[in-house]
Amino acid sequence: MSKRRILALVLCVALIPAVALTACSGDKSDASSKIVIGIPQDLEDSLDPHEATAAGTREVLFNVYEGLLKPDPTGDIVPAVASDYSVSVDGFTYSFILRDGVKFHDGTNVEAEDVKYSIEKCAGLTGGQVLIAGLSNIESVEIADKNLIDITLKEPDMDFPAYIANTNAAIIPRSNSKPATNPIGTGPYMYVSRSPQDNIVLKKFDGYWGTPANIEDVTLKIIPNADSIVMNLNGGAVDMFARLTVTQTQQLNDNFEVLEGEMNLVQALYLNNAVKPFDNVDVRRALSYAVDVDNILELTSEKKGFPVGSSMFPAFSKYYIDLSDSYPTDIEKAKELLASAGYPDGFSFSITVPSNYQPHVEAAQVISEQLKKIGVNANIKLVEWNTWLSDVYTARNYEATVIGVDASSLTATAMLDRFVSDAENNFTNYSDPAYDELFAKLYITPGDEERVEIYKELQKNLAENAANVYIQDMAEFVALSDKYEGYTFYPLYVQDFAKLKLKGQ
Known about the structure:
By secondary structure, the chain is an alpha+beta fold. It has helices at 3-12, 28-31, 55-61, 112-123, 160-164, 229-234, 246-250, 281-290, 293-301, 331-340, 358-371, 385-394, 413-416, 433-440, 448-464, and strands at 34-39, 69-71, 77-79, 82-87, 93-98, 138-145, 148-153, 189-195, 199-204, 217-222, 240-244, 256-262, 265-271, 306-307, 348-354, 377-383, 400-406, 469-473, 475-481, 484-485, 501-502. It has 15 helices and 21 strands.
């Protein structure tokens, strides 16, 4: 089956939760009441959805929180806390009708004041900073009626519903003064407890307005050591783990089914463009010519990844342009570029990689070997996830890293806004006036076809300037106990625990 066919299946079929069930007895009803899900990192950035930055945090909070709208497994935007919405003829005002009977996990009803508070907080309208870039375009949030919210934009934006559907734009109680440690949402699961570096416990929310979850209790077991993941699965401590490597799937016993999809992210050797020698475009291009993507896929995933040449993955088919052949492997060309940049004898640098993500560790190891052919010595520096977040993502104190970058919302913009020079999430410090000017046109270009062309030109800019060494949209392998079914892949980096169930349940 071709990769494009597999991708089509991922978008048309449902599969998302990384979940597993552990029975306390042979009783079927008891077996279906508990799930143990392995995750590679603790949720240390924030349990406040408006503040959460890590993809690993957002994928868990997807089950606890909801916005006015939410994504479904096919990639469509569907009503959630809002039952419906409309857009004014001029495109400036979105009117949301609040759904009757939606409750927070503390038992209180969701009110229009909670919605106004949440959206204004995210948009920076309450005196704080803008927490979601896509919501910075909001001019005002008004309560038109007790069940009607009008959100007026500074400029029309066709992507606005997707920003509102982002987990980061969740509706939270205005009375909750400590959402970072006491999360209260409206989702199918409610937060129970967290034991740092050990587990997070969730429980089915019986007052959920929508289709209820099938499993009563979810325990997220934190396994930061990639070498112990298979042991935990085979030993029965964990019933499910997402984003395994091919090697790990081959080590599983017969009690697991391995599901395959696409991660819908861009794995790359991300370069800090503000430090030497990566502030030199010829150096970045040299690395791009030296790295053999096909070889990386062959050695790490049995060629099951999808090569990409810029910061967009194929699921965004409308906007995606295939630039994977921008830098065919050419060692001599790479050496020439290094020499012209003033590095005829190569140089040394460090690749900082989160140790709990084995696919990125393996990719970094292959890249390190490949770069030796052009005299470049890449030392791999393994760090804990929270260290990566603080040092690499937040402080930008690094030279290079291998990681996967996903879209925080169902918009192509979310993949490209991080490369605007002054963007808060521009952790690679990419800076190009032509890129900034082109990106700004997205907000003043009304025609859809014209906007699509701008998205493609932005991707070309990143490729031509070798902003990073692009590798792939990774194949996703999920190990799920053969007792269960219902795992659903989404075209976003989320996991939907509510859809898992015992086979035959």
